[in-house]
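Could someone model guanosine-5'-diphosphate with this protein?
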Amino acid sequence: MSRPIVAVVGRPNVGKSTLFNRLAGERISIVQDTPGVTRDRIYADVEWLDRKFTLIDTGGMEIGSEEVIQKQIVQQAQIAIETADVILFVTDVKTGVTEDDVKVANLLRRTKKPVVLAVNKVDSVKRDTLAIYEFYELGIGDPLPVSAGQALGLGDMLDQIIANFPEKDIYEEEDDAIKVAIIGKPNVGKSSLINKILGEDRLIVSNIAGTTRDAVDTPIEIDGQKYIFIDTAGMRRKSKIKEEIERFSIIRAVAAVERCDVAILLIDANEGVTDQDTKIAGIAHERGKAAIIAVNKWDSVEKDEKTMNKYLKDISMELKYMEYAPKVFISAMTGQRINRMLELIQTVYQNHALRISTGVLNEVLIEATAMQQPPADKGRQLRLYYMTQVSVKPPTFVIFVNERGLFHFSYRRYIENQLREAFGFVGTPIHFIVREKG
Ligand code: GDP
Ligand code: GDP
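Reply:
Sure, complex below.
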C-alpha cells in the first residue's frame, strides 16, 4: 500500500520549515548513500501511531515583492491540492489571520481534500484561546494550537492528520495493473512519452472514476498487460522562477513515486545526467521502487558506435546507487525502443515481487562465503549463518550474523551481487536487515 502524502502549506514565516524539521526529526537523513538527495530536503518520512506517511514542504522560495510572494503562495497551495492526501495549513498566532491566510484558505476550501489547520507559535502552556478563535473565520474547521518551536500540540495535530487518511489504496482492486510513474525534470519528455504510448493504436481501458485525487491517471492495456500511468495529465504549473519549477517537479515526483510500482526516470540525452536528475532518481531509490533509466530524445543525438557506451558509463558514475536499473535509449518522438521499454517494465515489475525460497537462498549464501571469506577485524571474523526473504516490493532479506559491526559495506555489496547473479533482480533494489545471533 502506498503511503499517504501530507503537504505543508502556508505563507512565509509562519513556521512551516520549523514544523517540518520537528516532525521529520532524525529520519530526515536516513539514506546516506543517496548523494544529492539529502541536501535541501523537502520531503521526509513520518511515523505516528504505526501510520507512516510522507511529509512534503511545499514552501521554500518565498522571496521577492509582496506580489511575487502571493503568487508563490497560491501555486504552493495548488500543488498541495494536486498531490496530497491531507493538507496541513499552517498559520501564525502572533500575526493573527492575514490577507494571505485568507487567500490560501479560499483555495483550500474549494478542494475535496481534507485540510488540518494548525495555528503555530502558541508557545506557552496557558494557551490564549481567544487568539485561536479568530482562526475559525478562515472557514476550514477547528484551528489546532501548536508550537513547532516548543514541540507543543503536535500529537493532537498528528492525530487529526492520520484520522483523515484515505481508508485504503484506491487501486486495491486493480492489482493486476502495473502502476508506472514517469519521472524527470521539466521538458525531458514525460508528456511526449505518454502521448506516444497512448497514440499507438492502443486500448485505453477507462478513466478511474470517483477517486479522491484531483490528478488524472491513465489506465491502458497493451498486449494483454494492464498499466496505470500515474499523474500524467494537466500537471503543468507555469512559473518563471527556476528553483520553484524544480521544487514542484520534485514534489510531483515524490507523489507519483509513492503510488507506483515501477518508476521510469527520464534523462535528456542532450544534457546527460544533471543534479536534478540525481535528486529525482534518489526518490525512487529511497522508496525501494523498481526502476528503469530511459535516456530520451535519442533521435536528436549525433552518435557513432561508441556513443551509447559513453552514456552508459556516465549514468553508472552519476547514479551509482542505482546500478540495478536497466537502461534504455528511447525517443518519445519517433517511438524508438518504446516496446523494449514496455517489456522492461514487465521484467522489473516481476523482479520487484520476486520471492526466493529459503533453501535456495542459503545454498547461494554458502557458496558465496566459500568463494570469498567473510572479512575479519581485530581477530574477530564475520560469520553469516543464515538468511531468509521476509518481504517483496522490494525484495527484503533478513540475514543472521555473529556481529553486525563486522558486516561491512563492501562485503554486503558482495553478497548483494551474488544474489543478483544467482536470481537476476534486474531493476529492483534489494534491502537487507542484519540481525545478530549469539
Ligand atoms: P516558514 O517560512 O513558514 O518555513 O517559517 P520558519 O520555519 O522559517 O520560521 C519562521 C520564524 O518563526 C523563525 O524565526 C522561527 O524560529 C520562528 N518559529 C517557528 N516556529 C515557532 C514557534 O512555535 N514559536 C515561536 N515563537 N517561533 C517560531
Ligand atoms: P515534459 O515537461 O517532461 O512533459 O516534456 P515534454 O513532453 O513537454 O517535452 C518537452 C520538449 O521536448 C518538447 O518540445 C518535445 O517536443 C521535446 N521532446 C520530447 N521527447 C522528445 C524526443 O524523443 N526527441 C526530441 N527530439 N524531442 C523530444
